[in-house]
Amino acid sequence: MNKRPSNKSIDNKKLVVKKEEPLNKLPPKKMVITKSGIEYVEPKVETKKKDTNKYHKILANESSQVFKEAGDRVAKKELKWAYYTTENNVGVHYYLILND
Questions:
Q1: pTM (2 decimals)?
Q2: Distance of CA 47 to CAs 3, 28, 54, 62, Å?
Q3: 73: phi > 0 → left, psi -120 to 50 → alpha, else beta; which?
Q4: Which phi and psi angles does 75 have, rounded to 5°?
Q5: Beta-sheet strands, E only, within the chain
Q6: Which of 7, 41, 71, 75 sits most deeply, having the most CB atoms within 10 A of its CB?
């Protein structure tokens, strides 16, 4: 039988919370030694690439005819289902447009 441990057996250690660094914090400058002296070089900051894909948006409360048309376009490989999300408490299907 498993018994619940008494309060005396539980350690009362302090909870230590580590502070997270902000995401937009730049890394420190890099020191490079050259023949002419010491130079400080800015590190390269990677940026997110902008999504250049085009999407077809269908609300979840649309008529069945709209979903049938989207299904036909998926069968013809004009669209590909990308993801589902909610906007203002309404479900939204996003389809990636394959053929321009």
A1: 0.50
A2: 54, 17, 21, 37
A3: alpha
A4: -65, -35
A5: 30-34, 37-41, 55-59, 79-87, 90-97
A6: 71
pLDDT tens by residue, 7-48 = 555 555 666 666 666 666 666 777 777 888 888 777 777 777
**Whole-angstrom Cα distance, residue 69 to residue 48?**
34
Residue 40, strand partner residues: 31
- 70: tokens are 């989207």
Token digits of residue 47: 């940026």
Residue pair 66/58 in contact by the 8 Å Cβ criterion: yes
The structure tokens listed for 67 are: 């979903």
Structure tokens at 64: 């069945």
Rounded CA gap, 58 and 73, in Å?
13
**8 Å CB contact between 91 and 45:** no
Q: Which residues contact 26 (CB under 8 A, 6 or more apart)?
A: 43, 45
